[in-house]
Amino acid sequence: MTKSNNLYVGMxxxxxxxxxxxxxxxxxxxVRHYGSIGGDLPALGQAVxxxxxxxxxxxxxxxxxxxxxxxxxxLAGLGLDCVVVAPSMIPKxxxxxxxxxxxxxxMLARLHRAGELSAVYVPHPEDEAIRDLTRAREAAKEAQxxxxxxxxxxxxxxxxxxxxxxxxxxxxxxxLASLKLEQxxxxxxxxxxVDAVTTAGERLGRIEGTLRDAVAGWRMAPLVQALQAxxxxxxxxxxxxxxxxxxxxxxxxxxxxxxxxxxxPSEYTSGPTTRRxxxxxxxxxxxxxxxxxxxxxYRMPARITPIIAKRQDGLSENVRAIAWxxxxxxxxxxxxxxARGKEQNKVITAIARELVGFVWAIAREVPVxxxxxxxxxxGALRA
Length: 383
Known about the structure:
Elements: E1 6-13, E2 17-24, E3 32-38, H1 41-52, E4 57-63, H2 70-77, E5 81-85, H3 101-114, H4 125-157, H5 170-178, H6 184-216, H7 221-227, H8 235-245, H9 254-260, E6 265-270, E7 273-279, H10 285-295, H11 306-312, H12 317-339, H13 344-365
Parallel strand pairs: 1-4, 4-5
Antiparallel strand pairs: 1-2, 2-3, 6-7
Helix pairs in contact: 4-6, 4-8, 7-8, 8-10, 9-13, 10-13, 12-13
């Protein structure tokens, strides 16, 4: 099949419309606008059938966005070639100040024909469902924290601060139940805040229970269990990282995974001058957040606590050895950097970056059932 038989289809996807542009062959012919269709799958299917009638080999491309991967999975299910690209990785001319749906579709078709677009990793539907669940848990936790802050701020404004050392313990809850405010209206407000905290806690508990049950039957359950051998990695952290990253074995080395998560230092080199700055933060924010949380556990000396020993029960010797090596190295690394006077948050970030390497090493030791073919794409390292 000759290259001139290829037809590159750029799609600018929105909720209610899809703009389509076509680029034929590899010879640099002018890109043409095909038209605008509805944003639903029946309208897309009709357009696909018309394009298939030309007898050319179709190559679809569109930007990742709020519409998700429905179009990708629909086209992949039809046996068609389709890639999803990250908007941040699309080359753009600095002087181009005109942006329309038509121009965006034409640009995608032109760049896809030139081979200048990098496809993102499309998760398997089951993996995406677990990812949605971990993100729902994250949102529930934020709602609980917000409700607690509002209650404590209200009591502080009313001159009723808590004298205990730690909030939200059983003693603190009993203290809240004993409070009686002078103004009846304030008592109603207080009760509403208490109910909001209670509701948020119940919601968080339900989601975490659902997460435990869902992970138990997930194809990545062995990886989640193995990651919990690491210090700071309990179920939520391990499941979040596995769901957000997906197939970790698609990364050839730990540095690629570090870059994917945006945990590597930024750099500006010009001539003899080299400047390195903060981490790039260009990767998955949810995965990076839980890594930072896990890194705080390495402030203390290395030891196998009863909780960690329980999580490591039944795991292979290689996985446990990697987890112990991580403790020995990272706990020492934390003390060394702090002794040099490094700021604590920067030290924790450095620990999180090195922790990625041990995550990658453990993932290589754990067999994970491959997803069904045709529903996800591997090999792309950008998000």
